[in-house]
Each structure stands twice: as structure tokens, then as C-alpha cells.
Amino acid sequence: MKLKGFWGFFGRRFLLFILVVWSAVTINFIVPRLAPGNPIRQAIITRYGLTADQSVVNSLVIYYEGYFGLNDPLYVQYFRFLKNTFSGDLGFSITAYPRYVSDMILEKILWTLQLVLPATLIASVIGSLLGAIFAFPRIPKAINLVVPLLILFSAIPAFLAAIALIYVFAYKLDLFPLVGAYDPTFVPHIIPISQWASLPNYLHGPTFQQILKHSILPIAALAVVQLGGWALGMRGMMVTIQGEDYMTFAEAKGLTDGRMFSYTVRNALLPQITGFGLALSGALMGGILVESIFGYPGIGGLINGAIAAKDYPVIYANSLILITMLAGVTFVLDLIYPLIDPRISYSEK
Amino acid sequence: MDAILELKNVTKIFGSGHNVVSAMDDISLRLDADKPGIITVAGESGSGKTTMGNMVLGFLNPTSGKVMYKGNDIAKMSSKQRFIFHKEVQAVFQDPFAAYNPFYIVDRILELPLTQYKLGKSASEKKEMIHNALQLVGLRPAEVLGRYPHQLSGGQRQRIVVARALLLRPSLLVADEPVSMVDASLRANLLESIRKLNRDLRISVLYITHDLTTAYHISDAIMILYRGSVVEAGNEEKVIKNPSHPYTRLLIDSIPWPDITMQWGKEPLIEPSDAAMQRLIMGGSQICKFAPRCPNVMEQCWNQRPPLYRVDPDRVAACFLYQGGDVMPGEAMGDLFDGLIA
Amino acid sequence: MTVQTSTVQPSTRPKRTRLRRALLYFKRNPSLGIGLFMLIALIVFTIVGLFQVDPLKGYAGAVRGSQPPSAKYIFGTDGQGRDLYTVAVLGTWVTLEIGFIAAAVGMGLGVFLGFSSAYFGGWVDNILRWVIDVFMTIPGFLILIVLAALLGGRVSTEGTGLIIALFLWAGPARVVRSQVLSLRERQFVQMAKLNGLNDMRIIFEELFPNLLPFLGAQLISAVMGAVYSSAGLSILGLGNLREPQLGTMLYFMTTQGAVVRGMWWWVAVPVVLLCWLFVMLYLISSGMDELANPRLRRRQ
After folding, report:
1. Which CATH number is correct for B3-219, 3.30.1490.20, 3.40.50.720, 3.30.200.20, 3.40.50.300?
2. Could you give the ipTM of this predicted complex?
3. Of A319, B134, B199, B231, which residue has the fewest beta carbons closer than 10 angstroms?
4. Distance from the A200 Cα atom to the nearest Cα atom in chain C, whole angstroms
5. How far apart are CA C3 and CA B148, in angstroms?
């Protein structure tokens, strides 16, 4: 019975996923055409000027004219654009020609995920724990004084937390490096994805130490602003569950406080999973800005550089890939959530 | 013989696909303009009685059949006709809080209709009309006017709604469980007010209730619904004192009458089996819907829908126990009731 | 609801009780109280400041650069020669202005579409629901980057607000839709029909007033989202870099190394003021949420 309505549910979620990706692609198609002239051509000429190797400029201009097919009717342009995008061809970077933007982004995204994922995981675990503690009936009142502080943090964007953390911990106390993902003189040993099985060997190496040292502050900035949301959500869920009839019944049966508490925690934790997609999305957006503050070489750094150099294909591809990724995460979380929470079923009203 | 309200073979189906519920299943009824009476529609929750009320008020349209007010199909009224229809068909609802918009003071539901329907010539005349109506239901205007709904008691709120009905003098009043959520001490007062509306102002009343004791006190005729179908109808004294349909018997038997000589709860309660419920769902409206719970169930009940058999000249029951008697077509329900209203 | 209780009493009642009741309410709803207090403090700061500052000193090169706070420059000056006190007094409101333009336009659109979706139902509702879902799933900030990058630094304050508004309407639309749907089922709407009101008057006189606290809370959180977006765009160098707004200050402060140069005042002014704004808006918005939704209140 659990799977009743699964295919309808799956269909609607999948359609939403497709619509989101399609919207992102379409926006990328429309936006460059909103500006007068041909912004990409202008960007190419601005970037390389008249002194540069004209063969590069020419091949770029020709490539992009072919890519966009600006002389064709609009609908032909649109369908070619859709076809190119869905076959994975997101174009060349203007500044780093002849590199594909998709390659550049996939390389950088690992750095970003390396900040965003740990931050979200840490915040969700600690936040939920704090929320559970707040809702424990026999907690000293003093603990509740932490709540306003958490609320305060949850109102503040990560980039402001990042600036404050840099100033205090990196500049004043000199505990952490100010910028970057590794020291400027250090040559990191980046493991290609194909060799990730050997990853544990590197966990003690200098690369790992470098990365760890440089990651702590950005991760802290991204985590601290999420903490309040997780904690308050958990506390709210705990209080609701404590008020349910089945909990009163359990109490009447003479269950110990400890058992009651662990029941409540288990029931309250599940809905927190739905918050994960949203938190990840928020952390990723925050991460782009936090990276700009820290001069971190992830997606944020890439976008920052692309904006400065008017490298439009990179900006467009970035937005498309991130939107697709986040929509995918939401889609998967939506699908598995009813499987783990027995109170939710796939059939919607 | 002008009908003020006429339901012609009305069926209302909610939902679609596998989750279909027929809230009303081929129900006919007629109230005549020159003989205003109080007709009770009774049944348990899910019997379709509130759906019927909402349909008469024009809030719902039937899936098939017609609901007509003074000869006009409510579903097809022009906005002008609908405006007059709303003026003349008023309601008292069950929940005396939900009927008020919490944002406004209670005066609004008294003043607004007077203004909208252009009743009362001057402000002072309107004020006097409101004061009179409030006093008729036993409220002191100074105590309730200018207040917000949450500042009044449930009884006060419900009496204001009744006062509103007095004020507007509709031709038809739908009273949907008007006393079930107010204190017992106030019920008599409210029912008396509703009776007054009927006797003195000659307003027809459709009294919708699950509570047969109050129905017994005020109505002229009764119609008992079960899962959207009429099971028994006619003279309310006969129906209540001497029920003929097994469902009505069960319903009457479960009333705790204030009479120690009457036995209470002697009818057997049958818990329907899953298989029986399955047959009920498969059968749709082509079988007797009470069959799964009926102590007198026969094989025939599963195969055929029982027609309305005339048990008495002024009472019918949809049950094969009375097979052989005269069959009354559903459309004749109006004539049956007509004869009962004095 | 408490707001209503305060208006219930005939106006002959002395004003002091009303004030006391308001204060008592703030004790139960401290978020709203503190948030409004922060707003009043900000207004006082601005009014006092307006008597003291010369607006021109908020632009680059107006005063001597990189000066620490002193009697002459009480908040110091930044590396490009802006008086930070002037920036604080004026820039906070420029920042809020973007927020309010974006939120007002976004909310207007959201309320209209939410009402339409709930009111018309059928295929209009179906299409709008999908569009809302899509807009809620797309992180608007990414599209903002795409749009702003194309427009470069050529966008005015109002323009930035309008672009941000494109991604602010979906949340309010969804909330308004579900609120209208649940309000529509309430019996007082049926009563309004029996009172002879037409659909338009039912929407504006019966439904809309009940939505006001919700809309207020939504508006403030939309302002918050808009301020976040505009500050974020500024950090990426996509804001209006000429106007003395707080986001622009962040951009110059980070790109010109205020931290490593130890210019703590340059760091502190935009960071503290933006934090003030965010906390203030957050508290007011959650306070209004509490006001609008008694169930939330009971839970506390």
C-alpha cells in the first residue's frame, strides 16, 4: 500500500524537474538576446582587442555565430540551442579558450561542494541536536538564553558572517589564513576522480592539511548562519510531537522520560530531511558569495572572474548547471522522503 | 399551487475516479408558497443533509437533476435573479462563530443586508428594525451591538443570526443544525424563534438536523436520509413514534428519551463486514445502502434498490419489508408533504 | 486577536490603556517589539544624521581617504575618500529602498496571481501552480546574476529593485493562494453571499482584511530577500557602484583589502548596519507571522 500513487507522484515531480531545467535553459537563450547588439561578440573583441592573435578571435566569433546561429529564424536558433544544451555542449569559455565551460565548472564545483556539503551536514547535525535539547522538558532555563543568539545568527547572511570571521580569526588572532584554498606557494596535489579510491592515502598528506586549514573559516561562516534554522525547526517539531495524543498515551503507560525523549527525537528528525534540499540551495548561493569574500577557487571565484571579464558563456553555464543540480537534489529528496517517513504517503490530495 | 422550492431528482456526486461519494441520490422535494411549513431533513453525518442545504442556498450545483426556486433553476439564474434569490432565501448555520468574519463587529451582518437589499428607509429606521429583531430573540441591543464576535457567547452569536433572519423576512429559511452547538438552556428559545418565523411571518423552513428530538418538537413533516438516499419520510409523529424502516428504528432507538418506561438501545447493532462494504461500493445506487447494517437484510436488498412503499397514507419507507404495498414515485414527495402541512 | 481587541474598545477609552496593552503584547511577542524598536532607533539615527551630514560626502573622493574615526569623521573614511558616517546615514535607506521597491512590486504581482489562482481555479490555477512551483525551485539569485551580468553596472537603484522583484512573487503568490482557498471555505463567505455581496466585494471586504497580517509578514520577509539579493549582487560587482549603498561598501571593502590593511572601521560600518537591517527585518517579519497565526503563538 505504501507505494500507492507512486507513479503519479513521480510523474509530477519529474515534470517539475524538467520544467525547471527547461526554464533555466530558456532564460539563458533569451537573456543575451535582450541586450542590443551581440554581447558575446563584443565581449570577445573587448577581451582580445585588436592586438591579439586574430585567428583566435576569428575562430571564437565564427564558433559563437555558429553556436547561436544568429542569422537563422528565432525558433531555429531556439531549437538548436536546446539541442546543444541537452547534448551537453555548453560552449567554450571566452577567456580560457579553447576550454569548454562545462569542464571548467565541473573542476571548480568540487571545491565549492567541499565547503557547502560539510557546512550543511555539520549545521544540520548540531542544529537538530540543539533543537532537541531545547525541547527537553527538564533542561536548565539558562540554556534557553542561547535561542535568541541563534535567531540572531539565522537572520544574518553568510557573507557578513564570513567578513566578521576573517577579521577576528584570520586578521586579529591570526589563527587561520586570510584567503584562498591553499597557500599561494603551495602546489596542491589534486586527485583525478578516477583515482578517488586512493583518497584515504592523502588524508594525512600536506594537500589535505592545506585544504583543511583554509576551509575551516568558510565552512564555519556557512554553517553558523544555518544553525538557527535547523535548531528552531527541530524544537518546533519536538514541541508539536510532545503535544500529540499518542505521546500523552505513552506517558500514561509509564514510559521513562528518556524513552519518551528518544521517541520524540526520532519522530521529529524525519521532517528535518525535507529541509535539506532548501538548506543546500541556500548554502550554495551563500557559498558563491562567501567564496568571493575568501577568494576561494570554487564556483564563486569562477563567477566572480567571469563577471569581471564578461565571460558570458561561463556565467550562463554556471547558472544552468547549479539550477539543474539543485532541482535534481530536491527531486531525489522528494522521492525518498515518503519511503523513510511512514506518516507520509505518495498519494497527494 | 406555486412551489417556492422544488428539488427534481437531484443527485450530487463528489470526487472522481475510484473515490466517488454520492452525497445525494435522486432526491425530490417540494415546498409550496401558500402553505409555509417546517420540513425536517434528518440523518447522521455523511447522509447528505448538509449538501442538500448548501444546494438549496445555491452554494452547490447538482450533478444531475434540478433545484428550482419559484420556478427558476438556481444553477441557471442570471446575476439579477440570483441577487433576489439570496435576498429571499436565508440561512442559520450550525457554527455560530464561523458565520462571522472575525475582522468586523457583529453589527455588520445585520446592517449590511439591510443596505444591500434596500430594506428600511432611513438610518434611524434601520436601527429600530435591528433593535426590534434583537429584542425578539431575547437580546438586549446595547449588550451585543458594537462588539466583535469573539467577545460574545455562542448563544448570543447564534441568536443574532436568527435575529438577522427575522429582520430580512425571507420566504425560505435553511436552518442547518441551528442548535447543535449552543448550550442546552438556549435551544428551546432558538427553536421557538424559528417556529415564530414560520407561524407569524409565514416563512418556510428547511430544518436540517441529526437530532430527532428537536425535530419532533418543531416540524410538520420529516425526511430521513441515509448515505444520500431517502429511507423514510412523511408524518413526523408516526416516523418518530413508530418507525418503519430498520434504519429509522435504529436511529430512534438510540435516542435517550427522558422517559424511564421506554427502553433504550434494544435494537441490535450490526458491524458491517469488509465483504459487505465491498458489495455496497460495487452496488452504487442500485441496491439498498443500509443492507450491510440491516438486521432484516434479504438477498433482494443486495440486487435492487427498494422503491418508496406507502406504509401509511401519509408515510413512506424505502424497504422491501413493505413489499406489496403501494409504490410512491419519488417525485410525489412534494404532494406527500403538502398534505401534512396544516 | 490582540490587535482587534485594542480597536474594539470605544474610542472614549483613555489612550494610556491602549499603549499599555501594546506594551503588554510586545512582552508576549518580543520579536515584534524588539524589531520595531530597532526600526525606531534606525529612524532616529537617520533623522539626527540628516542634520549633520552633507550628502556629497558619501561619494568617492569627497574627503581624505583611509582616516580612522575621529572628531571630524566620527565613523572614519574609506579607502576611496567617502565619509562613512554619511554613507551610514544615507546608504542604509538607499539599501532599504531597493528592498522595498522589489518587495512591493513582487508582492503586488504575487498577491494578484495568488488571488487569481485561487479565485478562478480550473486551468488558470493549474498553470499558475506549476509556474509558482518552478519559480520556487529555481534559485532566483542565479538568474539575477545572469541578468545583472548582461546589464553590467548600468542598473539604477530602481532597476535593481525591479529585477529582484521578478524572483520575489512566487512565495507570496503561493501563500495568498492557500490562504484564500482556506478562507473561501469559511462560512462567513457564504454569509456574505447571503448578504448580497458580489464576488469582488467578498474578495476585498471579507477575505482581504483577514489576509493583512499575513501579507505584512510576507512583505517584510520579501524586503529581507531583496536586500540580501542586492547586497549579494553588489559583492559580485554587479550592483550600482556609484551610489553609496551598503552593498557597494562591501564590494569596495573586500576588493580593496580593508581587512588586511587593518581598517576595522571600514569593515565595521557596512557589516554592522547590514546585520542591523537583517536582524530588524527578520524580527519584525516573524513577529507579524506570530500575530497573523495564533496557532504559532500557542506553540510557544
Report:
1. 3.40.50.300
2. 0.85
3. B199
4. 35
5. 12
